[in-house]
């Protein structure tokens, strides 16, 4: 797709930039506990400010459902945002009207303001064009730097792009380029790792991927459902037995598309779901009736590493086992480190995303070694499902 970036802006000194960012960050006891999304907006916001624009930040926080709640005000994250940016930020308790206009009048070129939670206004989630025009009245151009909210057709993610000249911010630009390299126009062979607990949450992902990739590696609790569908007794493992037909249909679709599906043939089992319990590593056909499959076995992981060595592109979403609990993190850590090493040597383009995935790669110590790690959850999944992303499509110049 073709879209404008900050490189296309020209002279913006004194111009008003409405910038959609993601500040929906986790908090505990009134403090931000993870600043990852805040750090992601640094390049765009600082570049605009340093070029003399008046930067007006738009963001949502929580699910206030069109009503004002003091505990969901974006002012809750203001202190942390100022620390991350290293700049003073004016808070504006509105998103339209005279209050915003007067605040913009006070701002000097290069100053930054944070407008109130866009979801306090019901027109945000309804993508109300009147609200979009009212917000746009205080801006000269619009920048979307919140890929994680791009799967929502909301006023601040989609509507504004039709009212003002629209540009992708640096984080959005990097995300779109990475996704294009991973599934848009990837270099083959392409492998996808899809893990997690339940097949039911990723049916659309799997159905789309078998038509896009050469190798589909299924792990986590999801693999148990596929094994059971193939007649394997998975004991007391997490398994959606009622999805056997859907699992077999995905396998059949993969065969028709020339996609090889990789399921574990050795697994790590235990009778207890806790840290460091007694475990067994067995062939999938040797799982006892009272055991749970909690990780992919070492022989299967070694074979999967060989698959990646013959691939040029990797898309990763979800862990291979119960990685939060040792020793069931072993398969995820091992394969992630293989992917990281291949990426470092330049033979593999690796793109990963999703909450558990980000945590798993951080646990493996390889986040910086992957080509791109997306912090987006729902938007990344919907992209993997092949669904249109309204916030992205609105930026498309084609």
UniProtKB/TrEMBL annotation:
Its EC number(s): 2.7.2.3
Alphabetized InterPro entries for the sequence: Phosphoglycerate_kinase, Phosphoglycerate_kinase_N, Phosphoglycerate_kinase_sf
Main location: cytoplasm
Keyword Kinase attached: yes
Residues given in the record as substrate binding sites: 22-24, 37, 60-63, 119, 152
Keyword ATP-binding: yes
One term under GO cellular component: cytosol
Catalytic activity from the UniProt record: (2R)-3-phosphoglycerate + ATP = (2R)-3-phospho-glyceroyl phosphate + ADP
Top EC class, one word: transferase
Keywords in alphabetical order: ATP-binding, Cytoplasm, Glycolysis, Kinase, Nucleotide-binding, Transferase
Source organism superkingdom: Bacteria
Residues noted as binding ATP in the record, renumbered to the chain: 202, 324, 354-357
GO terms for biological process, alphabetical: gluconeogenesis; glycolytic process
Span of the signal peptide: none
Example GO molecular function: ATP binding
Locations listed in the record: Cytoplasm
Chain residues that bind (2R)-3-phosphoglycerate: 37, 119, 152
Pathway(s) this gene product operates in, as recorded in its UniProt entry: Carbohydrate degradation; glycolysis; pyruvate from D-glyceraldehyde 3-phosphate: step 2/5
Subunit comment: Monomer.
Family stated for the protein in its record: Belongs to the phosphoglycerate kinase family.
Protein known as: Phosphoglycerate kinase
Gene: pgk
């Amino acid at each position: 797709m073709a879209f404008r970036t900050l490189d296309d802006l020209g002279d913006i000194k004194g111009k008003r930039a409405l910038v959609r960012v993601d500040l929906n960050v986790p908090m505990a006891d009134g403090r931000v506990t993870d600043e990852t999304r805040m750090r992601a907006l640094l390049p765009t916001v600082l570049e605009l400010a340093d070029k003399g624009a008046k930067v007006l930040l738009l963001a949502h926080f929580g699910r206030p459902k069109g009503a004002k709640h003091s505990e969901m005000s974006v002012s809750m994250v203001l202190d942390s945002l100022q620390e991350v940016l290293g700049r003073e930020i004016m808070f504006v308790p509105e998103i339209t009207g005279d209050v915003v206009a007067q605040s913009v009048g006070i701002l000097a070129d290069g100053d930054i303001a944070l407008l109130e939670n866009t979801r306090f206004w019901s027109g945000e989630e309804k993508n109300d064009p009147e609200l979009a025009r009212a917000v746009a009245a205080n801006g000269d151009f619009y920048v979307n730097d919140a890929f994680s909210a791009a799967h929502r057709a909301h006023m601040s993610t989609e509507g504004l792009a039709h009212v003002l000249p629209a540009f992708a911010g640096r984080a959005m630009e990097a995300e779109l380029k990475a996704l294009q390299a991973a599934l848009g126009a990837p270099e083959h062979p392409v492998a996808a790792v899809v893990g997690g607990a339940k097949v039911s949450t990723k049916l659309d992902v799997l159905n789309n991927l078998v038509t896009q990739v050469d190798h589909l590696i299924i792990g986590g609790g999801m693999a148990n459902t596929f094994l059971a569908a193939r007649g394997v007794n998975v004991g007391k493992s997490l398994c959606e037995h009622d999805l056997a037909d859907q699992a077999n249909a995905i396998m059949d679709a993969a065969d028709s598309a020339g996609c090889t599906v990789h399921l574990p043939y050795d697994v790590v089992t235990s009778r207890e779901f806790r840290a460091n319990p007694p475990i067994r590593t067995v062939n999938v056909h040797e799982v006892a009736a009272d055991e749970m499959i909690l990780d992919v076995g070492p022989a299967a992981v070694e074979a999967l590493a060989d698959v990646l060595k013959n691939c040029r592109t990797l898309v990763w979403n979800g862990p291979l086992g119960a990685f939060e609990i040792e020793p069931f993190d072993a398969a995820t850590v091992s394969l992630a480190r293989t992917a990281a090493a291949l990426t470092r040597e330049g033979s593999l383009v690796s793109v990963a995303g999703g909450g558990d995935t980000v945590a798993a790669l951080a646990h493996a110590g390889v986040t910086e070694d992957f080509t791109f790690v997306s912090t987006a959850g729902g938007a990344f999944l919907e992209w993997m499902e092949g669904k249109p992303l309204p916030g992205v499509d609105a930026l498309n110049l084609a």
